[in-house]
Amino acid sequence: APLNAKHVKVVNNIADDIVLDSYPGIFSQIFSNLILNSVKHAFEEGEENMITISSVLSDQLTLHYQDNGKGISSEHEKKIFDPFFTTKRGQGGSGLGLHIIYNLITQRLKGGLKLMKDIPQGLGFTMTFDQSTIKVIHG
To answer: Using 50, 70 and 90 to split pLDDT, how confident is the model at 32?
Structure first.
């Protein structure tokens, strides 16, 4: 498994009482692609690689995804959600992972997705969902 190969620890800080009436397949695809992106692009062998996922529930649901990998250059940051943009051309990267995530969140779930750069190390994403679109049953 790729998580074991690069010694990745995933910390789930999403509140236990948040239950969504939504599209589990879409959320699974979003998090699978984010984790795969961190494993492929951010993490080095032999490091203490960590992914943290957390939530904030107010009038909207906010999910934070953060890795402690090597981050991204300002030049690449501007293109990160573009289709077919990859820093791994010729190494199996299609450049569609983050583009697919962006479309799933903004089109299918009518949410928002922002890149977080002001974190001490690595890269993060903030996903926001209106409760009229993403129904929170508990929380």
So the answer is: very high
